[in-house]
């Protein structure tokens, strides 16, 4: 832990796992008592919260960190968040002052704000659609995948920018994440592997699992419509339907979903497979804590990586996907808390077999 003193410092003098806030005026601050930095595959914006009990002289009463301040947050020399301070709690006592600051990466505005501008689009690429929606916020759009053309897309009344972006991405089985520079990237489940395995009695400090099958269904049907054309007859346009099965649900539990916007049969099928995959992923949540923020090669633990986990108590020995990472540091130490889901989560798949379901494998107990 850094010394309990809130200080400005030079950019060149940075320790590997110190958390530093870079302000737009060039100042850099460290000395936090507690730190929380979170990234989640289900969220387009990353979050941070920092606390310091600052010892200061009577004449030094300026507040360098204020809501609305644009900041860059680094772990060591690695940028992890570009965003804004959104919350502040400050207090003082004889000879000291206390600050709690929190905020999100730049795409947090997309979560809060409504679409301002064009509301209907036709024959548009997903990147072009996103660029128009985020243009008022000054953000850039990057792709790690190749999306298809969207025939028609209409923004719903009072819909936020992220809701519209997320809805458009789901049609093609993709999702959005925040970049380190505070822009957005369209991606899907990655194949990249974590260097370090998670093994009980070795590096796993604690673990837990939560199962909820109430939002899973034996069969999901997606229906929708597309406008007819000379090359796409109205009979085909009016019969856009796709379906996917979840073999882990053995009793009859059908669900019909109305597709967002205009869809073809192929798009309806992709949407059904995405819906089934994401519901399987969200039905089980495995949480693991390890000491430190880095893997054995020195890289930070990150989201959207495949990691091998071996826990006898949980009954889990398989590859899984890291869906969220939370770096914490306080008086008790430095830890990384991770949430894990199936590695094929969010990746369209025609059918989930019962013998491949995590629910059927858990609870084996120590051996």
Outline the secondary-structure elements.
Blueprint: E1 7-8, E2 19-23, E3 28-30, E4 34-40, E5 47-55, E6 70-75, E7 78-93, E8 96-105, H1 108-112, E9 120-125, H2 126-134, E10 141-143, E11 149-154, H3 161-170, E12 175-178, E13 184-187, E14 198-199, E15 204-211, E16 219-224, H4 234-237, E17 240-246, E18 254-258, H5 265-283, E19 284-291, E20 306-311, E21 316-330, E22 333-342, E23 351-352
Parallel strand pairs: 10-13, 14-20, 16-18, 17-23
Antiparallel strand pairs: 1-3, 2-3, 2-6, 4-5, 4-21, 5-8, 6-7, 7-8, 9-11, 12-13, 15-19, 16-17, 19-22, 20-21, 21-22
Helix pairs in contact: 2-3
Protein model, in words:
There is one protein chain. This protein is mostly beta strands. It has four domains: 7-104, Roll (Phage tail proteins - horseshoe like beta roll fold), CATH 2.30.300; 110-187, 3-Layer(bab) Sandwich (Phage tail protein beta-alpha-beta fold); 198-213 and 282-360, Phage tail proteins - horseshoe like beta roll fold (Roll); 219-278, 2-Layer Sandwich (Phage tail proteins - 2 layer sandwich fold), CATH 3.30.1920. Helix content is 13%, strand content 41%. The protein has helices at 108-112, 126-134, 161-170, 234-237, 265-283, and strands spanning 7-8, 19-23, 28-30, 34-40, 47-55, 70-75, 78-93, 96-105, 120-125, 141-143, 149-154, 175-178, 184-187, 198-199, 204-211, 219-224, 240-246, 254-258, 284-291, 306-311, 316-330, 333-342, 351-352. The strands form four sheets. Strands 1, 2, 3, 4, 5, 6, 7, 8, 14, 15, 19, 20, 21 and 22 form a 14-stranded mixed beta sheet that branches. Strands 18-16-17-23 form a four-stranded mixed beta sheet, with helices on one face. A hairpin with a 2-residue loop joins strand 21 and strand 22. Helix 2 (126-134) packs antiparallel against helix 3. The longest helix has 19 residues, at 265-283. The model is unreliable at 1-10 (pLDDT under 50).
């Amino acid at each position: 832990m850094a010394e309990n003193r809130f200080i400005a410092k030079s950019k060149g003098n940075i320790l590997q796992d110190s958390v530093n806030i870079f302000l737009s005026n060039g100042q850099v601050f460290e000395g936090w008592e507690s730190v929380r930095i979170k990234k989640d595959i289900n969220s387009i914006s990353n979050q941070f919260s920092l606390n310091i009990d600052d010892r200061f002289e009577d004449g030094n009463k300026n507040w360098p960190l204020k809501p609305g301040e644009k900041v860059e947050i680094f772990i060591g020399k690695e940028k992890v968040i570009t965003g804004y301070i959104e919350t502040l709690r400050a207090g003082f006592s004889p000879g000291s002052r206390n600050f709690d600051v929190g905020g999100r990466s730049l795409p947090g505005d997309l979560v809060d704000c409504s679409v301002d501008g064009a509301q209907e689009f036709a024959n548009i690429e997903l990147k072009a659609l996103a660029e128009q929606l985020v243009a008022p916020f000054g953000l850039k759009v990057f792709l790690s995948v190749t999306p298809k053309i969207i025939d028609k897309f209409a923004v719903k009344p009072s819909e936020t920018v992220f809701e519209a972006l997320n809805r458009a991405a789901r049609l093609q089985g993709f999702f959005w994440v925040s970049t380190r520079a505070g822009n957005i990237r369209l991606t899907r489940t990655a194949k990249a592997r974590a260097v370090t395995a998670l093994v009980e009695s070795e590096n796993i400090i604690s673990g837990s699992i939560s199962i909820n099958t109430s939002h899973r269904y034996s069969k999901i049907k997606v229906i929708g419509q597309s406008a007819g054309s000379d090359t796409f007859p109205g009979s085909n346009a009016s019969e856009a339907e796709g379906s996917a099965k979840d073999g882990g649900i053995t009793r009859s539990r059908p669900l019909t979903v109305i597709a967002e916007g205009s869809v073809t049969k192929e798009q309806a099928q992709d949407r059904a497979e995405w819906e089934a995959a994401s519901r399987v992923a969200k039905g089980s949540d495995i949480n693991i804590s390890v000491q430190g923020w880095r893997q054995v090669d020195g890289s930070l633990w990150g989201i959207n990586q495949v990691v091998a986990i071996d826990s006898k108590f949980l009954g889990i020995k398989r590859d899984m996907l890291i869906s969220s990472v939370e770096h914490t540091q306080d008086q008790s130490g430095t830890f990384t808390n991770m949430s894990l889901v199936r590695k094929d989560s969010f990746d369209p798949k025609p059918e989930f077999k019962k013998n491949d379901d995590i629910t059927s494998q858990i609870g084996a107990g120590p051996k």
